[in-house]
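Q: Sequence in, structure out?
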Amino acid sequence: MQLKKSLNIVLKIVLPILLFVVTIGFVGKKQDEVLCKKIIINIKNQQGNFFINEADINSLLTNDGNEMVMNLPYENFKLKDLEERVNAHKFIQAAEVYRDLEGNMMVDAVQARPIARIFNPDGADHYISDQGRILPVSDRFTARVMVLSGDFFNAYIEKDMLADDAGKDLFHFIKFIEQDKFWSAQFAQLEVDERGIINIYPQVTKQLIEFGTVYNYSDKLSKLKIFYDKILPDRGWNRYDRVNLQFKEQIICE
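A: Exactly. Output:
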């Protein structure tokens, strides 16, 4: 009697669990048989930069048209593989590929945003993204960003990343300039030698700005602001050829 009672208790517990598992498996199988009805692509973070579009992402999903996904059941391909393929694109910062309840394939992609361009007289130019990644240039679109030059960048182009090791501090300085309305309008080019010494070429005035390293850059920018606000209006905008900010509490004009 006790054994029968125990068996009934076990059956009451186990059977619902088994039924649930079977039901989930059946639903999952049915979901895999659902056809991919439509591909809906959403690209974020473009902000006037159009380095990648819906056609590019469609090409990534279909392997340049060699692999069909439309009107095929989801069991024929893996969404994770498609997601990895989209994420491998240089101008994709992050992407997620999934399906909705109606059978549509959803692609949410975040485009990498360039903040500066590395001018390379011995090879191809590159961009630096707001995440510190090195990006290729595009035949389709040119971003209007500050120009960088100098031997400092050579090693980082090979690594595809500036926000790393000794490049990290310079990246934060470049990002600060890009985000500041005043300085981003003032600076046309940063020339950085292999030691990390910076010369700045302004947009409007003709002075070469000998900036030094990025160490204490906020103090150096404060001195440069004094130069613009007080010295140039009094002495003339093009009187000086050079301004040196490398020495503490000094502005040296030549």
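The chain is about 35% helix and 25% strand.
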